[in-house]
What does this fold into?
Amino acid sequence: MTASTPAKDGTTRPDGTPYVVVRDEAQWRQLLDPAAYRVLRQAGTEPPFTGEYEHTKTTGVYRCRACNAELFRSDHKFDSHCGWPSFFSPMAGDSVVLIADHSMGMLRTEVRCASCGSHLGHVFEGEGYPTPTDQRYCINSVALVLEPDQP
Ligand SMILES: [Zn+2]
It folds into this structure.
């Protein structure tokens, strides 16, 4: 797991390539409700144990609420009891980008959507959860939209 420092203007991925979906802040504000805007575009965190997907077991794909990109699958979701939906892996290695986050006086690894650059949450590893990766993608419910599989 490696994290990089992003471009200052937030329009490119850590590797320097541009995000596919680029909108200005006025457009994001119009598109997203205030709670989603605060998390996705201002790197906020929803209160723990409040999000709509914390305990969801429905089979399907979790998409980015900002740009609709496929991010996580229900197969990779696990019960972390941490207060937010938790996944042990993104849907594909290039679904998300990881960025070093020095806010709040500690080094954490921020998870952003690889298509639009919106903030999703953080990833932690080595916590001892019995999952294949021992990683916990701790993601805000409000950053996601679940698309259930067709029956
Ligand atoms: Zn996105």
User: Anything to note?
Assistant: The two ends are 35 Å apart (CA to CA).
